[in-house]
Amino acid sequence: MPQSASETGDWFLLTPGPLTTSRSVKAAMLHDWGSRDANFVAINKSVLAQLRDIANGGDEFVTVPVQGSGTFAVEAMLTSLVPRDGKVLVLINGAYGLRAKRILDIAGRKTVVHQTAEDAPPDLKKIESILKRTPSITHVFAVHCETTSGILNPVSQIGELATRYGKRFLIDSMSAFGAIPLDARALHADAITASSNKCIEGVPGLGFVICRRAALEASQGNATTLVLDLHRSMVELREDRPVPLHAADACNRRAASGA
């Protein structure tokens, strides 16, 4: 086997994602599940709890799965948790900050933008200045690790500023979650979003939003779509609605096996 190949003989994918998956992840995908089977429902609950625990969410947080790519999860987070009359400070230093701005524009949410070069982190002094002079801002959005450049943004300091000025904090951790420590409670974040096919080494198909329960409870009526309404999804999860978490199940089985 060439050195450039994985354990299954595939080339290593050195792309932003999806990434190369291990033999154990591929093997876990070979099982067919009955979507309303009790074991499958139990797996759903276990996977969602494990994802919450990675973010040190505790009982005040809940993981809501979103069927689709990471962008589906980001859009669900922004359009569900930001009220229709809300205003978001969007921190942009790459394509995914720009994408969040576009999502908010299409959804009719007001935005304020702080943009820096792709090789530069947000300017904390300028962020504080914006928050001081724009009291109508309700939320701050930041990308944890900007996929296009790999730059790691200072989410801890950004979270401190958001908390100091009474703003809700939303994080896209797509390219960092599971690899770089992230503490939802210490950050005072309302939500963190990521997906199955990057640092947690699963396959594509599942996004998820780790939400503060209080913020989720207050979000009823905010959403502009049916399938990306996190509040509706939370209610259905309480009713043990089965969710096809095939992508996360692969990760779950791999973790359980110690691989």
User: Unreliable runs, pLDDT <50, ≥5 residues?
Assistant: none
Helix content: 25-40%
The secondary structure category is alpha/beta
With strands numbered from the N-terminus, the spatial order across the biggest sheet is 1-7-6-5-4-2-3
Taking all residues together, what is the mean pLDDT?
88
Q: Cα-atom Rg, whole angstroms?
A: 18 Å
CATH-wise, what's the superfamily?
Type I PLP-dependent aspartate aminotransferase-like (Major domain)
What does this structure look like?
The chain is α/β, with parallel strands linked by helices. The chain has a single domain, classed as 3-Layer(aba) Sandwich (Aspartate Aminotransferase, domain 2). The chain is 36% helix and 17% strand. The chain is built from nine helices and seven strands. A seven-stranded mixed β-sheet has the order 1-7-6-5-4-2-3, sandwiched between helices. GO terms for molecular function: transaminase activity. Its cofactor is pyridoxal 5'-phosphate. This is 2-aminoethylphosphonate--pyruvate transaminase.
Please outline the helices and strands.
Layout: H1 23-28, H2 38-54, E1 61-67, H3 70-81, E2 87-92, H4 95-106, E3 110-115, H5 124-133, E4 139-143, H6 155-164, E5 168-172, E6 189-195, E7 206-212, H7 213-217, H8 230-238, H9 246-257
Parallel strand pairs: 2-3, 2-4, 4-5, 5-6
Antiparallel strand pairs: 1-7, 6-7
Helix pairs in contact: 5-6
